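Run log, item B.
One chain of 461 residues. Sequence copied directly from the ordering sheet:
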Amino acid sequence: MRVPLADSWIRRIALRTIRRFEVRLERFKLVNRRTVRARLLEDPVVLLAARQHSAAHDVPIDQVLRQVQRYIDEIVPFFNVLSYYRLGYTVSRVLLRALYRLTSEYQDRTALNAIPRQDVVVYLMNHRSNADYVVVAYVLAREVSISYAVGEWARTWPLEYIFKSFGAYFVRRRFREPLYHAVLERYIQLITRNGITQGIFLEGRLSRTGALGPAKLGLLDYIVRTLRDPAFDRDIWLVPVALNYDRVLEDRVLTREVLNPDGPRPGRLRQLASVLHYGLYNVARWLTRTLRRYGRVAVNFGTPLSVRSWLGPDIGVLDLPWEARHQRLQTMADEVMSRIEEIMPVTPVPLVAAALLSFEQPVIRRDQLLQRLDEYRDYLLRNNTKLVHADRGVYAILDRASRMLRMRRLAHAEGDSFVILPTQRPLMEYYANSVRHLLPVAHPIPEGELLRHAAIEMGAR
């Protein structure tokens, strides 16, 4: 039973929250979930897919429509302003400040500000950690709320309820049933037509190697094909977003999957238990003042790409069958991935990991390492790469990274040398892979350069 006074009080708080954040909130996010369900159930494409499914599987149409309703209930969120901005923002701020130092940059702020207000914006990101959801939403909280495409891993209570209240919609990976994909496609196109800002991880899953993976085209295809609707006169802008970390929370789990690809995968309950254990462990460390930050997390926003301009006169390719339009979409996705690669932030741990591994030996002298870092730093600055702590020099970069490497037991210092622990080399490779594409080919360092650099280091001490 609804209480009018309570409803009025909640609405007033929600309005105050929106004014406080000065956020642009799309009206369609506040549309009742029942209205969205009714639109999808009446959608001609969904109804056609239901009839085809009924005929192909010899199932009564009423039963198929009930299945459609279950898919809709699974996919469609129920955005709540207070949940997103009071609960989500507050928790994000506390967690990020406790675990990381956050850096955010815009490579082309002018181009982002020039996007027409009525057009649709889609943030396409690389996927390093499940913390990516929190980082990007927190950075953009005072500009826009993002509706994420979330995988099945979050379909566990209470995560499912929380994510849906944040406006996230759920996607089944590797589920090929045409009926399900008809419902998912029409829902994504419905929110795109209504201007909802979306966030998609273009790789489709977390990187297991640290390097960028190939682009997955499914969700991007659904979004872009909204342009086929004659009534949709807006443009769609794809904004590349690059994230990098000094420490990825799931790094050991991810590298273990690469080393043992046929090993058993933990179930949802076990994953949830691990997350809760990890959270409670860090809360205890925070209460006892033994919690140490995990270094830097950096996010970089690139130059947006206009889909209408990209397609130009070839926009008719969107009406062609999948096999015929696949190559054109792949070219577009590769362009976005290339932009993400170019703007990848370089944080201390990945840079130092790449420098250590460039010597291809287990023991590296400190003066050698500093010289290699100096070479990398100069190269990155010449190419306008986002290098965190670039203004503080290689000594500060090495100092911050070495503390994290020692804490993670990836490498340790012996006198004036660093020793890479053999069992931890895959994890070092994981971090180095995130920035290797930005670095020059490493060459042997002349002995004279090492002596000169050692003298500089002694003077700095």
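Observations after the first pass:
- The two ends are 71 Å apart (CA to CA).
- The first strand starts at residue 101 and ends at 106.
Flagged for discussion on Thursday.
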